[in-house]
Amino acid sequence: MNPRNIARALAAHGLLELAHDVALRHHVTMDELLGHSHHRPEALARRELWTLAYSIIPSLPRLGKLFGRDHTSILAAIQKHTARQRFARTCRALAASLFPAEGPQTCNGVLANIVAVAPAPVSSSSASADAHRVAAS
After folding, report:
1. pLDDT tens per residue across span 51-103
2. What is this structure's pTM?
3. What Å distances lie between residue 39 and 28, 33, 64, 91, 108, CA to CA?
4. Is the Cβ–Cβ distance between 66 and 10 less than 8 Å?
5. In the chain, what is the straight-line distance between the N-terminal and C-terminal CA atoms, in Å?
6. Which fold has domain 3-117?
7. Which of 29, 45, 57, 120 is most deeply buried (CB count within 10 A of its CB)?
């Protein structure tokens, strides 16, 4: 099924505006959103669209037919999207507890802050040289 046929089917089910909103939020075209690309931006947007569509049409076989996919592909995408949302919530909660003054952050922002405040690792060669100096004195 090509993206134009999928768009027509979405319009018939009242989901075309939802698809446009997801495409805009993820900076992808409708053809990319409704296509078969495995590139990360398109895949993330598609997973979000399928998750939102499932909340409106809670039938995996119907969604599979609507998007021209097997229902198990829809299920796997919904599970991945849900796990990603759960991880993002955990990161934001961790950031809020570790860095309360900095406000909401992305997961990458949390990791960058943790790396920034972590002590620099000691290389094994310099640690062993220090140990030899201490033993020699």
Report:
1. 999 999 999 999 999 999 999 999 999 999 999 999 988 888 887 887 777 66
2. 0.73
3. 11, 10, 20, 24, 20
4. yes
5. 77
6. Chromosomal Replication Initiator Protein Dnaa; Chain: A; (1.10.1750)
7. 45
